[in-house]
């Protein structure tokens, strides 16, 4: 398995979605170090590009989870 170095913010986001699938807003509420939604979207994109995070849409709401 390929190891990936994650910064503290990326690890915090992963810890938030580790146990359950969450929306971006729910992640923002649980991760204290991220104060703006745009910053969170950048982190989500980075994790998704690394193949660590996946997303899906259910009833017009986007959820994120650890792959």
UniProtKB/TrEMBL annotation:
Gene3D superfamilies for the chain: Winged helix-like DNA-binding domain superfamily/Winged helix DNA-binding domain
Domain of life: Bacteria
Source organism of the structure: Polaribacter marinivivus
Protein name, per record: Uncharacterized protein
